[in-house]
Amino acid sequence: MIKKISLLGCTGSVGRQVVEVVKRYPDRFRIVALAANEGGRLFFEQAKELAPEFAALRSNGGEDLPLPAVTRFERGEQAFEEACAYPSADVVFVAVSGFAGLKAALLALSAGKDVALANKECLVAGGHLVNAAAAKAGAKILPVDSEHSAVWQALGFDRRAPFEKIILTASGGALRDVPKEKLPQMTAKEALAHPTWQMGDKITVDCATMLNKGYEVMEAMSLYGVPLEKVSVVMHRESIVHSMVAFADGAVLAQMSYPSMELPIQIALTYPERIYAGVPALDLAKLGALHFSEPDPERYPCFSLALACAREGGDAPCTLIGAGEAAVRAFLRGQIKFTQIAQILESTLCRAPRGAAGDYAHLCETEARARETAETFISRYGD
């Protein structure tokens, strides 16, 4: 039986790799709906090649290119929402970036769709809403982030299985070997040169600051229903061990492979069955050694700020997301220095009011207010 997929965020890094997985096994998978925020030639090329039933662009501007006769094409927020809960889809693949992933996941789960989740922010900001929507609809959340896919695999694809501790691994990003005193001079180009992973710009910068690892700690807390004390992080520069789970008897299970997002993408669609994912077999003898160490809080202040938000709870993680969106965008545009990302996050968190995580509307307000507050600090640094 062919699994039908609605792919949200089809033109992004993860979305493009989902398309490659689907093309590898056309007898197993079919994309019935495609959605992206903005158009461009890639979106229309994907729609032309895949011939989905429905194609949606969230934005109303831009050029429209010819599509297959079988594909209905719409623009606007309503079109995006339709793709999020597309009726004939068996699974909705949430590969959109940022806070927008929360709305996408909630719409899909509320429609009773299983969600393959490749968006960190929705669980960080609104994990309580996502879990409640999944429970109410009897739908599944399938982790796609490489770290959380690794944990899920180590638990035998059972997020409720007992364990003692989750151990997330972190590469340290593109600037991990740069002397700390030189970090203020690092450019966006240098921060985007990740040594082991090919990812989108935002997440690659978040990897360099390790803000993404703080997000992943909060993801783990939400996905596996555990307190912060049951999640730890170790540095692992080779990016071979994608995460580990420790058990009561002292055993630790690790999921290992060469770095490739196509493996966690595919396993979310085929579990518990494993089939070729385009990843070569791991050659441990050739690797020779794997290295692990503790994170350096002086090098990665964004990671420390994220852990503080995890301890505080409420809407603090949502505030962090909004501030992070604004700060990283400013860095990529050359408006601020690399080290000023952490300063903007801290300043925004200090100024922002605190409250319960609340409902979706409250989280939207919190995230927007955090972005606005961060922009005021960005403008000062740019002067």
TrEMBL record:
InterPro entries: DXP_reductoisomerase, DXP_reductoisomerase_C, DXP_reductoisomerase_N, DXPR_C, DXPR_C_sf, NAD(P)-bd_dom_sf
Domain called 1-deoxy-D-xylulose 5-phosphate reductoisomerase C-terminal: residue spans: 141-224
Domain of life: Bacteria
Cofactor(s) the record lists: Mg(2+); Mn(2+)
Binding of 1-deoxy-D-xylulose 5-phosphate, residues: K120, S146, E147, S171, H194, N212, K213, E216
A GO biological process held by the record: isopentenyl diphosphate biosynthetic process, methylerythritol 4-phosphate pathway involved in terpenoid biosynthetic process
Pathway assigned in UniProt: Isoprenoid biosynthesis; isopentenyl diphosphate biosynthesis via DXP pathway; isopentenyl diphosphate from 1-deoxy-D-xylulose 5-phosphate: step 1/6
EC number, as in UniProt: 1.1.1.267
Gene3D superfamilies: 1.10.1740.10, NAD(P)-binding Rossmann-like Domain
Domain DXP reductoisomerase C-terminal: 256-372
Reaction it catalyzes: 2-C-methyl-D-erythritol 4-phosphate + NADP(+) = 1-deoxy-D-xylulose 5-phosphate + NADPH + H(+)
Keyword S-adenosyl-L-methionine annotated: no
Keywords of this entry: Isoprene biosynthesis, Magnesium, Manganese, Metal-binding, NADP, Oxidoreductase
Similarity-based family: Belongs to the DXR family.
Role noted for this protein: Catalyzes the NADPH-dependent rearrangement and reduction of 1-deoxy-D-xylulose-5-phosphate (DXP) to 2-C-methyl-D-erythritol 4-phosphate (MEP).
Protein name stated in the entry: 1-deoxy-D-xylulose 5-phosphate reductoisomerase
Species of provenance: Candidatus Borkfalkia excrementavium
Upper classification of the organism: Bacteria, Bacillati, Bacillota, Clostridia, Christensenellales
Gene giving rise to this polypeptide: dxr
